[in-house]
Design brief:
By secondary structure, the chain is mainly beta. It is built from two helices and 16 strands.
Length: 211
């Protein structure tokens, strides 16, 4: 069981290397045989025990040599520079899968697949995301430059809307699907171009997705 109660209500943008829709969302193998992703999360409301997490951002860079469930992954987590020491500790405990029922959240599940976890970085995270409009911008100086936008019809150029509904998911209940571009530097260097973009509202606790 979880040692400490926590909850976050947040907005998320994920850009990974897979084709639009991302086979991982359907328990299929990744498009190119491996996984790489950039993640931004804006916490609108949240707490960890008695520590408020309202208004903080976090970001991450991830890479696996094969499918995520095969392990041997690497992670670089970036914590909002504005976080106080207690907030920083709380965020790191949540993101590393601690104080969480096993298998209940994406953070806890991913933590079991990582072989290398680089030292967390404190930085200014410039992040805006609108899940309904499928628009996002994530910038962390010298680390991440990423943006997301809607998929467009190749004939008319009109915005194309598609969603993924996961009633029993461990990350979100409903995600808007778009596309994204990202470049990263530092311990994990990635270049993603016109690949899967995911925009979602996150309602998570130590016991999983809140419905």
């Amino acid at each position: 069981m979880a040692d400490l109660d926590w909850t976050i209500h947040a907005r998320e943008f994920v850009n990974c290397n897979c084709s639009y829709g991302c086979p991982c969302q359907f328990n299929a193998l990744p498009t190119q045989g491996y996984c790489a992703a950039v993640i931004g999360i804006a916490i609108d409301r949240g707490f960890h025990g008695s520590t408020s997490l309202d208004g903080l951002n976090v970001a991450g860079i991830f890479a696996w040599p094969g499918a995520i469930h095969e392990g041997r992954g690497a992670a670089q987590v970036i914590i909002d520079r504005r976080a106080t020491p207690p907030q920083r500790e709380a965020l790191l405990r949540i993101l590393s899968g601690q104080d969480t029922v096993p298998g209940a959240t994406i953070f806890q599940v991913f933590s079991t697949t990582l072989e290398t976890v680089h030292e967390p970085i404190d930085a200014a995270i410039d992040f805006t995301v609108d899940p309904e409009k499928r628009i996002a911008r994530l910038v962390v100086d010298h680390l991440i430059d990423s943006h997301g936008e809607p998929i467009r019809n190749p004939v008319t150029g009109a915005e194309h809307r598609a969603r993924i509904d996961l009633p029993e998911g461990f990350e979100y209940s409903l995600a808007e699907i778009g596309r994204g571009w990202s470049t990263t530097q530092g311990a994990i260097e990635l270049t993603l171009a016109d690949s899967h973009g995911q925009f979602a509202e996150l309602h998570l606790s130590q016991s999983g997705v809140l419905h």
